[in-house]
Amino acid sequence: MFWRASANAVEASDSAEPKTFPEAVNGSDQVHWCKAIRAELKSMRLRGVFRAAKLPNNQRAVGTKWVFKIKRNADGSIEKYKARLVAKGFVQK
Predict the structure, then answer these.
(1) What are the residues whose beta carbons fall under 8 Å from the beta carbon of 1, sequence distance 6 or more?
(2) Whole-angstrom Cα distance, residue 65 to residue 89?
């Protein structure tokens, strides 16, 4: 459960941000999260973010992780579900 605090009140919302990909695609808001994931992948494809390449010997690919956020209006209602695919830069040497 997500708690939103404002200057005048605190309200609860059942729409929590998933921490993992399986939580997003299997949760109660899966339709919204899948739509956000498709939009992110389409955007990355159109911008040419990734290309297939052979990994050189003795090298490791940098992993990725999905980050999910709910953008809310001033009144606390949901404006947009956002999914971003980010690099796990902390594993780089």
Answers:
(1) 12, 13, 14, 16
(2) 10
- What whole-number distance in Å separates Cα of residue 90 and Cα of residue 85? 15
Report the alpha-carbon distance of residue 81 to residue 24 in Å, rounded.
Answer: 11
The amino acid present at 86, given as its one-letter code, is V
Q: Is the pLDDT of residue 43 over 90?
A: yes
- Amino acid letter at 8? N
CA–CA separation, 10 vs 20, rounded Å?
Answer: 26
Number of residues in the chain: 93
Q: What is the pLDDT of residues 7-25, one digit of tens each?
A: 444 444 456 899 999 999 9
Distance CA 44, CA 84 (A): 10
Q: What is the DSSP string of the chain?
A: -EEEE-SS-EEEES-PPPSSHHHHHHSTTHHHHHHHHHHHHHHHHHHT-----PPPTT--PPPEEEEEEEEE-TTS-EEEEEEEEEE-GGG--
